[in-house]
Amino acid sequence: MSELMKKYGGLILFYGIIILGVLLLNERFRYLNNLPNINQENLEIEIAFR
Prior knowledge:
Blueprint: H1 2-34, H2 40-49
């Protein structure tokens, strides 16, 4: 087991970080896609109030 970790530990860490990054990006974009969209009319009203 120790020999395997010496041989492949860096590779496992590298791919683990890539997989973790992909999962975090997936969650981020899922959150952004679930936000209510601002259409053009609401945007104009918001600008007018300011």
